[in-house]
From TrEMBL:
<dbReference type="Pfam" id="PF01546">
    <property type="entry name" value="Peptidase_M20"/>
</dbReference>
<keyword id="KW-0378">Hydrolase</keyword>
<protein>
    <submittedName>
        <fullName>Amidohydrolase</fullName>
    </submittedName>
</protein>
<dbReference type="InterPro" id="IPR002933">
    <property type="entry name" value="Peptidase_M20"/>
</dbReference>
<dbReference type="InterPro" id="IPR036264">
    <property type="entry name" value="Bact_exopeptidase_dim_dom"/>
</dbReference>
<dbReference type="InterPro" id="IPR017439">
    <property type="entry name" value="Amidohydrolase"/>
</dbReference>
<dbReference type="Pfam" id="PF07687">
    <property type="entry name" value="M20_dimer"/>
</dbReference>
<dbReference type="InterPro" id="IPR011650">
    <property type="entry name" value="Peptidase_M20_dimer"/>
</dbReference>
<feature type="domain" description="Peptidase M20 dimerisation">
    <location>
        <begin position="182"/>
        <end position="279"/>
    </location>
</feature>
Amino acid sequence: MFLTDHDMVKLTAFRRDLHRHPEVSGEERETANRVVEALRPLAPSMVLTDLGGHGVAAVFEGEAPGPCLLFRAELDALPIDEKSQAAHRSTVTGKGHLCGHDGHSTILLALATGLSRAPIARGRVVLLWQPAEEDGSGAAAVLADPRFAEIRPDFAYSLHNMPGLAFGTVALKTGPVNCASRGMKIRLSGKTAHASQPETGLSPMATISRLMPALTALSHGAPPAIDFTLATVTHAVLGEQAFGIAPGDAEIWVTLRTLIDDRMAELCEKAEAMVGQAVREAGLEHAISYHDVFFHCENAPEAVTHLEAALAAEKVAFNEGNLPMRASEDFGRLRTICPSAMFFLGAGEHHPALHNPDYDYPDGLTEIGARIFMAVIRRALG
């Protein structure tokens, strides 16, 4: 193992410091600064900051030419109030690292520690701390940053801790592993009226009541079925908070999911047609916009082969688990530029679920995750 007990003490302290100071998507400036400060004594060949927002990329160069391997972690936390008694619990009301991105960031710092002591013989390793994963905007912003051309990889890898999976075991497979998703915001507009004379206005009440179950009924099947679709109503609001006004406006938020990107256009078309018909019949105006757009994650066979060899070498048990999963991950954007693969590292079968208010990343995963990634690096670059 390339990490000492002293390293693990420092890495755990780093992770818990990140945990105390969560920043949500687009606000990760101080988190990024903490990463940069921790990298300073490790002397990477190059550090890029403010990449695609608050992203950080550390590059470690070998002496001889060779392939470029990128390893990605996330910087952002969630807008959820943490309910924990841990000494390192969030100090920010309404925000918490309840997905483990603080732990994933620490795994990359562990890799940087190892690479600083035993440089690679050839090629280059890029460690990317990516902003804004939770809202799906971060990976796209990083790829669109002109400076990304300096670190464009030949292969990209990532991991996510996974409660419900036995601690320290891995779920990995070729093909789709995370679904495509996007948020559909539907705005309905009619005309307000006095609550004593609702007939003089045009209320969207009946239409919103009709659309919520109708949109949900677009759901079909389950992964890994190629025709899987899921529509989940996540938010709805009708009118003003007043007893004297019959409503004139309403809004519905729906999350749409498909197994692969190619199916998303069809699902959006069906949902839009349903909304269009409903508002025409009611005489309402409407507007539709899309948010939090995630591409599906698909593991490339050649990248999976490298991970499987690393897992076998490190004697880490792995299987396909329950993949593909319904949840989305914006690491899927990386497959548009190079072969990529993500694996899922068990946080414990009874560990609190991701995004739960009592979730906390298990620090024991840092050593395991770093060891797996380092095995990929040493096998590919020496």
